[in-house]
Design goal:
Elements lengths: L3 H13 L5 H13 L6 H9 L3 H13 L5 H13 L1
GO cellular component, one term: cytoplasm
InterPro entries: Conidiation-specific_6 (IPR018824), UPF0654_domain (IPR052670)
Protein name: Conidiation protein 6
């Protein structure tokens, strides 16, 4: 099953593609205007539950050592790590 964000992204790409017919662009624009592509809370909860906690912790630890991560984000990650 495709996520709503992927569908919306494909429709937006259709609008910018010069090789797509005007009819297809009109249909894509109509869908973008009339359909709801927001994700529900249930979908985002499912993705969080499906993640391996060891991988999540490892990613947080790696971010703490990354010089490109801001100090405020590192503090946030450190507090989340302490919750685990």
């Amino acid at each position: 099953m495709s996520s709503a964000n992927h569908i919306a992204g494909g429709l937006k790409a259709t609008l910018k593609n010069p090789n797509v017919s005007e009819e297809a662009k009109e249909r894509a624009l109509d869908r973008l205007e009339n359909e709801d592509f927001s994700t529900t809370a249930d979908e985002s909860e499912k993705t969080t539950e499906a993640k391996n906690p060891g991988n999540v912790i490892g990613g947080m630890k790696a971010a703490l050592k990354n010089p490109n991560v801001s100090d405020s984000k590192k503090e946030e990650l450190q507090s989340k790590l302490e919750e685990f």
